[in-house]
Each structure stands twice: as C-alpha cells, then as structure tokens.
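Writing this down once: the sequence line spells out the residues, with the fold written below as integer tokens. I am pasting one below:
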Amino acid sequence: MSDELKTVISEAEISMKKAINHLEIEISKIRAGKASPSILEGVNIDYYGSPTPISQVANVQVLDTRTISIQPWEKNMLPIIERAIMQANIGITPQNDGINIRLFMPPLTEERRKELFKKASGEGEQSKVAIRNIRRDHIEQVKKMQKDGASEDICKGAEDEIQGLTDKHIALIEKILEAKEKEIMTV
C-alpha cells in the first residue's frame, strides 16, 4: 500500500479518536446525580481580563456525593465565580456563604434520569455522525487517488480498512453510552 493511502488511513483514525475524545468530554459533563468537579470544566471566569477555568483560581473539592465546595484563593473572586456558574446554566444554583461557594446536587427523579440519558444519547449520535462524515471524506480521498492512477485492489483494501475503523469506533461509542446509561439509571 502506498504511503499516501497509509497517510489517509492514519488521518481517518486520528480524526475518529478525536471524535471519541470529544464524546467522552461531553458525556462527563452530564451529571448522574453525583458531585464531580468535572461539572465545572467548561465554566470560565473573567480573571483580570482573561478567561480562566475555575479550578485555576480556587480549590474545588467534593465534600460528599451531593456537594461540591469552591474556595477561591482571592475573596473578591466569590461573586465572579458565582455569576459564572449561574451563566453557565449547569442546572445548579450556587450557595455563597462569604467564604466558599457550595453546589448542592439535587437528587434525580426517574424522569430526569431519562432526560439525561436522552441528552447523552444525542451526544453519542452526533459523534456517530462525525465518524461517518470522517469515513466519507477519507473514502472520497481514496477514490480520488484511484482516479489518479492508484491500483483498484489497493484502494479497495484502504476503503475496507477505513470502514473497519468506522465500525470499531461506532462500537466504542455504543460501549461508552451503555456505561453512561448504567451510571445515570443507577439510583
């Protein structure tokens, strides 16, 4: 197989791995009723003019299964962090006691659990679409190489390899979603 085809296949695999990583990050943000600092990962505050993650300006601790404590290193950051959490719309209202901000995770109802799993499934579906688009784009590159004179058999082998990668990554998405469903639905 030519170096160009190997490059196309490795690019497809790298892109598919990025789609899986993105899915894992997005799914980790969907809370399953348990307190986790990862809930705050996408929340940035304005720290002296630059957007900064909360974890870089405060201690973020899990006190128990339903409580997260945020203790800023600078007291003047309390209202800024509180406002950023409210604007991030993560579904939790921060409680400011003047020293710490506490986030209390509400217990999940059956309906809310199903809603969260539906959201996780939507993320999974987006990742599947992304992987299928990656497959399509890279198979088109292989077909273009075939038109430019590459061997038909070698190109067919490359297409099969890309399809194999697609199948493997879609199965991985299913596995990730299955684990998340178990996590969400466990009371």
Helices lie at 3-28, 78-88, 110-147, 152-185.
